[in-house]
Amino acid sequence: MEKEERKIVVDIERKRVRITISHGEDEEILKLSLDEARDLEEKLNSTIEDYSQRQNLRID
After folding, report:
1. CA angle 20, 23, 28 (to 5 degrees)
2. Domain of life of the organism in this record (predicted)?
3. How many domains are contained in the chain?
């Protein structure tokens, strides 16, 4: 069984940020305003930071 490659491409359009997510034959395109893109950036950073902190926790 082959592992399907996941690919994320971020481009700039006139007044939007376009995010294309490809997974195998499937493709999803999101077009975000600058405010939406900034909000997504904040949420991603927060989630990644939370994930990193959880990785450092040790449960005995």
Report:
1. 35
2. Archaea
3. 1
Determine, yes or no, domain membership for 60: no
Q: Is residue 10 part of a domain?
A: yes
pLDDT tens-place string over residues 20-57: 999 988 999 999 999 999 999 999 999 999 998 888 77
pTM reported for the whole predicted model: 0.73
User: In this predicted model, which residue has the larger pLDDT, 27 or 59?
Assistant: 27
* Residues 20/27, Cβ–Cβ less than 8 Å: yes
Separation between Cα atoms, residue 11 and residue 46, nearest integer Å: 22
